[in-house]
Design a protein that fits this description.
The protein is mostly beta strands and 694 residues long. It has seven domains: 84 residues, no CATH class; 57 residues; 80 residues; 127 residues, Jelly Rolls, CATH 2.60.120; 64 residues, no CATH class; 36 residues, no CATH class; 75 residues, no CATH class. It is built from six helices and 42 strands. Helix 1 packs antiparallel against helix 2 and helix 4 packs across helix 6. The longest helix has 26 residues. It starts with a strand and ends with a helix. InterPro entries: S74_ICA (IPR030392).
Length: 694
């Protein structure tokens, strides 16, 4: 027992009382019954984690070493737990079940396991990534490394080996076969090697083969192309957020043409993002060759883009990745050339093929059990070639030497021979300089059909005289230089002629002064087609009054009394829609409006004249001025100072006008009195202030 005077005031306290058996005193220690709680707590901690077990056992054993009885009780407990080969497991599961790490320790091994798992609700199976074990003998019992999916890196190689397949790929991307450099695959039935064409940088992403004729409007809508401007729009082009893109446009513009370009970004579901973006100089009117370069950064939420441009007659487009523009080149998938060579070996066959990007065969050598197929646009054998048997379906031989030949049928334009021996010789059309026959009747020549180059006769009697061409009384009858049909012409075929009606409705039936070539009439020709339509390329003169039943269509000018009357290269109709507006209508139906002059201020036309009570200053102050960009009739105009028609409608309604096409405007003539009234009011205020100051 120990006495303590903590405060120094002679108040003692008794602490550390110990009662024990025997004759040898020992240091103070708690009763065994008081340590049961500590043992129970240590046991619970031991069961929770292996680390806690080791820590608490060390602390408790250090403590119980001071007392034999406590030491014996705790060591007995430790032996019982060790005999059971206690196992401690720690698991760490990341958010949303994406990954899990497991630590397991037994008396024989320490095991670390890392797994990648997905949400169990979708039924997917967990994929083991790595498993590491170390046993009691110091050796690695099991090390595995499995990677699911595929590498998507700038440069990569991939090897896949199973009991059914061995595959190895070398390339620069995994986004498409057109970018792969090489691939080798082998199974128990196939051995295949592929070598793809490695395309250079700056390849064109704009595919001519998949474009749409028409121009890109707002919200991704494709509008009908103009026949002159010939707008086109690309298909959806895949892009990455924040990626740099170069969009180039080459075109030759006619007078007042515009090298218009635009593009529209889309999200993952191909829904448009924001509005359409116009390209550089898209609304600039000019003429001649143009080349515009647009440097574009893909928005963070964009995954597709479409480009649109006016092509006219010679437009070119190039879309490429990066920030440095390059010269124009055709998109690889538009080029009809081999982009991949495949060598394939099967049991009993072997083949080498050159393929296009679409998989079509450009050329191949294909060997099977009993035949070899060689296919190409052009095949050339150099050197001496020996063929035991040769069968040619169709062939051309510049020189052919035949020792002995059997011909079922021999067709030739010219057959030159010193001697021909034959039991039967059939000549449909033949010219013989010397004909020798052992049996021929020469006094009378009878023939079912005979061709005579020149026939001279005094009288020809015939039931039916059929000829391809002839001269009768200065007229040519029959076919002439242009080929088909039967004609009657003069000695000059082009001067005058008449056909027999063959060749359909588009063939010429009657002509005068045709020209110099049957391919097209001359500039002063007159002719009538088989369908009755008449054409006069020269001047037609009429006296009296020509009567026209139907419409009169004039593509040029109508001259009246040596002058020009109602001519326009763009408009074809003039009309009036109301008392305020006239219009000029184009061939497309679009109209340009202009106001009719109806503004008068003659006092004789006015009544009930009174002094205006309107505050001109108040109206003018409410008409705020703005700077803005105005787009109207496909024209863009930047205005530095202007007012809104809606404000005029609200504060000066008698000056407001609404056009026939629904566009708001205002009459400046009607606004002038407001300005005059405002000036007068301001002048009165100035005079009043001057009097006050004076």
């Amino acid at each position: 027992m120990a006495l303590y005077d903590d405060a120094g005031n002679n108040n003692y306290s008794v602490r550390r009382i110990k009662l024990e058996k025997g004759t040898l005193a020992t240091d103070w220690s708690p009763a065994v019954e008081d340590t049961d709680g500590l043992i129970t707590e240590a046991k619970a901690t031991f069961e929770r984690t292996a680390q806690g077990l080791r820590t608490d056992l060390s602390a408790i054993q250090e403590y119980v070493n001071k007392d034999g009885q406590r030491q014996e009780a705790l060591q007995s407990y430790a032996r019982e737990e060790s005999a059971k080969q206690a196992t401690a497991v720690r698991e760490l599961v990341t958010k949303d079940y994406v990954g899990k790490a497991t630590y397991q320790e037994t008396v024989r091994t320490i095991e670390n396991k890392f797994e990648a798992i997905t949400n169990p609700q979708n039924g997917s199976i967990a994929t083991q990534i790595a498993n590491y074990k170390k046993s009691v003998d110091g050796r690695f019992a099991d090390i595995t490394s499995l990677i699911s999916g595929k590498a998507n890196q700038t440069d990569f190689q991939r090897v896949k080996e199973t009991s059914q397949l061995y595959e190895r790929i070398l390339g620069n991307t995994e986004n498409g076969i057109a970018d792969k450099v090489a691939r080798m695959a082998m199974t128990n039935q196939l051995f295949q090697v592929e070598v793809g064409k490695a395309f250079a940088e700056h390849q064109n992403l704009f595919l001519t083969s998949t474009l749409t004729k028409g121009f890109l409007g707002n919200n991704g809508i494709i509008n009908v192309a103009n026949a002159t401007e010939k707008e086109v729009t690309s298909d959806f082009i895949s892009v990455n957020p924040n990626e740099k893109i170069i969009f180039q446009h080459w075109v030759t513009l006619p007078e007042n043409g515009m090298a218009w370009t635009a593009w529209q970004f889309f999200d993952k579901n191909k829904n448009p993002i924001d509005n359409r973006k116009p390209g550089l100089n898209a609304y600039k009117k000019t003429v001649g060759k143009q080349h515009n370069i647009n440097q574009i950064t893909v928005p963070t939420n964009a995954y597709f883009v479409r480009f649109s441009a006016r092509m006219y007659d010679d437009g070119l487009i190039k879309v490429e990745q990066g920030s440095a523009p390059s010269d124009y080149s055709v998109a690889p998938n538009d080029a009809l050339e081999a982009v991949k060579t495949v060598q394939r070996q099967l049991a009993g066959s072997w083949a080498v093929q050159n393929l296009t990007s679409a998989g079509s065969i450009v050329s191949q050598i294909n060997a099977t059990n009993n035949q070899i197929l060689v296919e190409a646009e052009k095949i050339r054998f150099k050197g001496k070639t020996l063929a035991d048997q040769l069968t040619a379906i169709d062939g051309y031989f510049k020189r052919l030497f035949v020792g002995e030949g059997n011909f079922a049928t021999l067709n030739t334009e010219v057959l030159k021979s010193n001697s021909i021996t034959a039991d039967k010789l059939v000549m449909d059309m033949a010219m013989a300089r010397r004909f020798v026959s052992s049996d021929i009747f020469t006094n009378t020549l009878a023939s079912k059909t005979a061709f005579i180059n020149q026939l001279q006769s005094v009288i020809v009697s015939s039931t039916l005289l059929e000829g391809y061409k002839g001269w009768i009384g200065g007229f040519q009858i029959g076919t002439h230089n242009s080929g088909s049909g039967r004609w009657i012409t003069g000695r000059n075929q082009f001067a005058v002629g008449i056909g027999d009606g063959e060749g359909g409705s588009g063939r010429t039936a009657l002509w005068v002064n045709w020209g110099y070539s049957w391919s097209s009439p001359g500039t002063e020709a007159w002719f009538v087609k088989n369908n009755g339509k008449m054409f006069c390329y020269n001047t037609a003169e009429f006296w009296s009054t020509p009567v026209i039943h139907g419409d009169l269509k004039v593509t040029g000018r109508i001259r009246y009394d040596s002058g020009v009357w109602i001519y326009s290269g763009e408009y074809e109709k003039i009309g009036r829609s109301s008392k305020d507006y006239f219009y000029l209508e184009k061939a497309s139906g679009a109209r340009d409006w202009f106001p009719a002059w109806n503004d008068t201020s003659d006092r004789r036309l006015k009544s009930n004249i009174q002094e205006s009570s309107v505050s001109g200053v108040d109206v003018i102050n409410r008409l705020k001025t703005y700077s803005y960009r105005k787009e109207f009739n496909n024209e863009v105009e930047d205005i530095s100072c202007g007012i809104m028609a809606q404000d005029v409608q609200k504060y000066a309604p008698d000056a407001f006008r609404e056009g026939p096409d629904g566009v708001y405007t205002y009459n400046t003539f009607a606004l002038v009195p407001y300005l005059i009234k405002a000036i007068q009011e301001l002048n009165q205020k100035i005079e009043k202030m001057e009097k006050t100051i004076a």
